[in-house]
Amino acid sequence: MDQRVSRRHRAGPVPPVGQLVAVRCPSVLCQNMLVALDGGAIGAHSSLAHLGQCTWSGVGIHDDREGG
Ligand SMILES: [Zn+2]
What we know:
Bound molecules: zinc ion
Order of helices and strands: EEE
């Protein structure tokens, strides 16, 4: 008997559980816009409330959650 165990499909690279992939921008101008992280820092982004790139772009973040 050849019983196959169904495999779970993966859509792509899955980050380790608990790893931050995006944060809410602290800028009031961004109004808690969800911004993807870029190498542990806030990714480049802009909002309609201001011209050009948000000043928080590139700012490193520290995951201060407790216990994952
Ligand atoms: Zn921002």
